[in-house]
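Propose amino acids for all 272 sites.
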């Protein structure tokens, strides 16, 4: 097992890469129109996740997500010491904040231009349309720009979607990384995890922007808060920022539990 310091550096770097590619492609899609359609954004997200995992898995296991870390600490304590859970989450959050800072520094002129063209006043109602580059909102402001209330997607529904999507993701991660099962994916594991994220984004991004990762949302959201979006960033419309923290954490536990109750048993039997 690597030293904790080395593992934390890997988690920071991996989460930085993941959030840089992910929020970066959202920025180019929203602010420049460089991507055409949701699937193009989702594919870049998928490759970003793949690259981040491949670069860091050999050092830290490439959790890159507090929901994954919580599930690993809960269900795979023999492989991942629970004492590392909070330091991992801290490193992930720091990596996400740094990535958010880079995206803001690079795209700041484009954000200003976008807000002028759409008569958006940063920090006021409606500025979710530009803040969505960093944190996430329900329903997706790019898909439903005129929806200003929670009638279409309530906070509870949004939290449920975030929990469900994260549960599916963690279920797949557990399946692909379970040493008790017959080896199947091998070196394809990072790509398969990345494209699980891409498929989930393509399905659920219109509803919640498809976060699945508390660090991915909260880190850049802190940057948006400091950059002038204020209460639109935190606590967000309908005080909804908690959706992207609690939903994935609960979903990660649910996905891990579902795997342990189903395929883990079948995999153990097959390996035996």
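Proposal:
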């Amino acid at each position: 097992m690597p030293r904790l310091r080395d593992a934390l550096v890997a988690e920071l770097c991996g989460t930085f890469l993941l959030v840089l590619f992910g929020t970066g492609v959202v920025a180019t899609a929203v602010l420049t129109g460089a991507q055409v359609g949701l699937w193009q954004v989702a594919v870049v997200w998928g490759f970003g996740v793949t690259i981040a995992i491949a670069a860091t898995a050999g050092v830290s296991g490439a959790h890159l997500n507090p929901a994954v870390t919580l599930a690993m600490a809960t269900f795979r304590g023999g492989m991942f010491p629970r004492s590392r859970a909070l330091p991992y989450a801290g490193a992930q959050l720091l990596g996400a904040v740094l990535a958010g800072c880079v995206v803001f520094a690079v795209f700041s002129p484009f954000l200003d231009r976008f807000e002028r063209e759409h008569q958006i006043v940063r920090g006021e109602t409606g500025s979710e349309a530009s803040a969505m580059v960093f944190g996430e909102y329900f329903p997706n402001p790019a898909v439903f720009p005129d929806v200003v209330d929670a009638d279409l997607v309530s906070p509870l529904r949004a939290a449920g979607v975030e929990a469900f999507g994260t549960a599916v993701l963690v279920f797949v991660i557990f399946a692909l990384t379970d040493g008790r099962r017959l080896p199947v994916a091998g070196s394809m594991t990072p790509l398969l995890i990345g494209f699980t994220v891409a498929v989930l984004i393509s399905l659920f991004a219109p509803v919640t922007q498809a976060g699945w990762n508390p660090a991915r949302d909260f880190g850049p959201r802190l940057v948006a808060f400091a950059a002038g979006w204020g209460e639109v960033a935190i606590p967000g419309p309908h005080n909804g920022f908690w959706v992207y923290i609690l939903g994935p954490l609960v979903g990660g536990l649910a996905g891990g539990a579902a795997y342990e109750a189903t395929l883990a048993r079948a995999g153990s039997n097959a390996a035996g």
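Residues 85-117 form the longest helix (33 residues). Residues 22 and 45 are 5 Å apart (CA to CA).
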